[in-house]
Amino acid sequence: MLRSNRDKQQNFELVSIEDLVPADHMLRKIDKYIDFSFIDEKVRPLYCEDNGRPAIDPVVLFKMIFLGYFYGIRSERQLEREVQTNLAYRWFLGLGLTDRVPDHSTISWNRRTRFKDTNIFQDVFDEIVLQAVSHRMVGGRVLISDSTHIKASANKHKYTKEQVQHNTKSYVDDLNAAVEADRKAHGKKP
């Protein structure tokens, strides 16, 4: 007998998001070893204690930016969409299935206004890398490259070692460019 799954989309199910994220998922490993709680102390002076509406947890905002950086998501609007649909991202951020995902404009405003003229992104990035190094998650000894378009240098006795330092500025610049392109596309002021 032929049956349709259309009606199943309206069923109510009792599920645990914890059970839906695979045990070997990379975000579980990151969550196990990286303690993001240091972010609260770093950003406390940038928030008002007794004025305005309640803020979105800054750890969630920074974890969202971390997800974008880690998975190469170059737009805050796209990052919002990815978090809405990806269970592992929701789990990592501490959001339930029905919790509202922070809006891309909120992420952008915080990044461009609240944290403007600070080194907060670099400080957070550096702390995460230090924690990852201390747990032997990264070592910085091996560089893997897609060499499809790189001319080969086959002399094994002639090479130089270079230490490459990577920071968050290029990622933040990409996010700013995406915001400006989106504003221009929607006829808004820069």
Total strands: the figure is 0
Please give the share of residues in helix.
Answer: 40-55%
Number of helices: 9
Biggest sheet details: none
Our estimate of the beta-strand percent is under 5%
Question: How far apart lie the N and C ends?
Answer: 59 Å
Which regions contain 5 or more consecutive residues with pLDDT less than 50? none
What structural category arises from helix and sheet content? mainly alpha
Using the alpha-carbon principal axes, give the shape: globular
What would you report as the Rg, rounded to the nearest angstrom? 21 Å
The overall pLDDT, averaged over residues, is 83
Organism: Cohnella lupini
Protein name: Transposase
Pfam family, one: DUF772
Domain Transposase InsH N-terminal: 16-112
Textual characterization of the structure:
This is Transposase. Pfam families: DUF772. Residues 16-112 form the Transposase InsH N-terminal domain. It is globular and about 70 Å long. With 190 residues, the chain is mainly alpha-helical. The protein has a domain at 55-143 and 167-190. The termini are far apart. Helix 5 (76-85) crosses helix 6. The chain has helices at 17-20, 26-33, 38-43, 58-70, 76-85, 87-93, 104-114, 120-134, 169-185. Helix content is 48%, strand content 0%.
